Amino acid sequence: MDHLACFTPADLAGRHAPDFSAFRWKLLAQGDSWFSNARSKLNAHANLLQELVFKGPALAVNCAGTGDALSHMVDLEANPDFVRLLSGPGAPVWDGVLLSVGGNDLIAAARTPAHTADGVEVPLHQRLLRRQTEWGAPSAGVARYFSEPGWATYAEYFKANVKHLLSLRNHGPSAGKPVFMHCYAVPMPRPAGAEPSDELGANGPWLLPALKAYGVPSADWAAVSRLMVFHLAQLLKTMAADKEQFPGLFVFDSTTVPLALAAPGSTGISGDWHNEIHLNHSGCFKIARAWSEHIEAVLEGRHLVQPAPTGRRGRGSAPR
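^ thats the sequence. predicted structure below, dont judge the formating
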């Protein structure tokens, strides 16, 4: 098995540009901090792309850059390299596109406060968490803390952005080629931020302060995190199943990969996690090896049956 050879857009114009003819698969990649090229990030807790392996030589040109921890999906189009290499004049024909998007947007939405800095209440449809006076009945479980109107807003934003990305693909030489996305693993809300040298922008922690600000009991933190990640996984899988609106979209359900959960309250590397929201090398290895099989099966024309949407709302334990 060959590791995915990762290059940057700058490498394509350099003296040692890769020879595309030497690779069986040529992929274009873009995404959030799980794809970031920040050197300190790669050293500390890996890049999901670098753990992908294939039966033959495969190349990826990664446009994710050095990454802000909470860069948003809408910023993808603002990346001129990604747009140029996907749909610009003279763009290569890619065998597929790898996307890591949605996770940072989900966390950013969870961090939306209940009130603005000048005390104006933020409407429920613009945030993912409810104030204590808005909590539902205890019989609803951790869903009582969750804003379904806010989730509907997030879901529409997410779908619109993915449709736009698929449109960019279809207006370039790689029209109709598969677009691969992954779901996310379930983080443990804990006081484990990024080192200042990580070049991630916000140093975190990310989820923990939001849950505290909304008064969510600590006993429910892990379950609320699970509910949000499962909502995103369900959304992604539903989109992939809708071939009319999202043609050529393939989703890998990362929530099914058993990972070692971080210990509650831990402040550093724990289990398969480097900090609160980023995997370490072992975590990236586990997810990437499983995702590799999914990607290669599609590239080889083996038709995988995508997991059917289950309607699961995050109750119960995520597979670990």
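Confidence is low (pLDDT under 50) at residues 197-201, 305-320.
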